[in-house]
Amino acid sequence: MDGARWGKTGQYAGRRRKTILSCSVHPDGHTEKRRHGRDHVASRGFTLLEMLVALTIFSTLVVAATNIFMMSSRTQRKIFDLENMQASARYTMEAMVREVRTGLIDYGYYASRGSPIATPDHELALIDSEGESIRFFESSAETVSYCPDQESRPCLLVTVGANPPAPISPKGIKVRSVSFYVSPEADPFEFDPSSGSYLSDIQPSVTMLLSFESSSRKIDERTYTHLQTTATSRAYKR
Predict the structure, then answer these.
(1) SS3 state of residue 88
(2) What is the pLDDT of residues 153-186, one digit of tens each?
(3) Which of 2, 172, 209, 234 is a plausible cystine mate for 179, CB 3.0–4.6 Å?
(4) How far is CA 215 from the centre of its chain?
């Protein structure tokens, strides 16, 4: 009875473990037992399919992280370029505003060039506080060589007296458009004997509209800025 009972118990325990024992006899008479079942399956490692799934998930995460990093880096460069361009554009604008406030509109230049003041005009002619003629204008095919470099063309140029043109817009920035609105179109300090009055009673002022573009080689990283201001001359000669 005991033997039968323990035999059944051992058989039951064997079925619970689901373990199969196999024996092999070596030529030297040594017997080796091998265990098969759950213990063997648990220690076999990853399958090829599991490795492929894990590799796919890891690759997807790496690509997503790389795209986020590249996008963040591109946005940071655009913000830096925009801030730099806005600072340079404001400096250029302030340089012209300062000359307008301390100088006079050179109505004689507009009369001598063969065309009256246009609305808008693409060049600004002034006479500074020392009597020197100053002219601001966008570079043309004849003057584009005065720009800082190839990538900064067209640019904004200035001439003082008989000196050659010099760039006033910095390197790395292109000028998209330049417009000057000069008011009044007639010299308010010129007296007309025939009418017995001055040609105008309006204090000269200039409204300036500037549009700039960064000279980045990648189109999607280029930045743009537009500035507008009005400056009135403080000179009065009557």
Answers:
(1) helix
(2) 999 999 999 999 999 998 888 999 999 999 999 9
(3) 209
(4) 9
Distance of CA 89 to the CA centre of its chain: 15
Q: Tell me how far apart the alpha carbons of residues 214 and 63 are, in angstroms, rounded to a whole number.
A: 30
**Domain residue ranges in the chain:** 18-59, 75-232
Residue 197 to residue 193: CA distance in whole angstroms: 7
Residues in the chain: 238
| Residue partners of 230: CB distance under 8 A and separation at least 6 | 205, 206, 207, 208
Report the first-to-last Cα separation within the chain, whole angstroms: 138
Does a cis peptide bond (omega within 30 degrees of 0) precede residue 120?
A: yes
Cα–Cα dist 117/225, whole Å = 26
Structure tokens of 201?
């009673």
The pLDDT tens digits for 19-30 are 444 555 555 555
Which two three-digit tokens encode residue 41?
């399956």
Q: H-type helices in the chain, by residue range? A: 2-17, 38-42, 48-102, 107-112
Q: Report CA-CA distances (Å) from 237 to 104, 187, 188, 220.
A: 10, 11, 9, 51
Is pTM beyond 0.85? Reply is no
Q: How many CB atoms lie within 10 A of CB 31?
A: 8
- Rounded CA-CA distance 190/200 in Å is 8
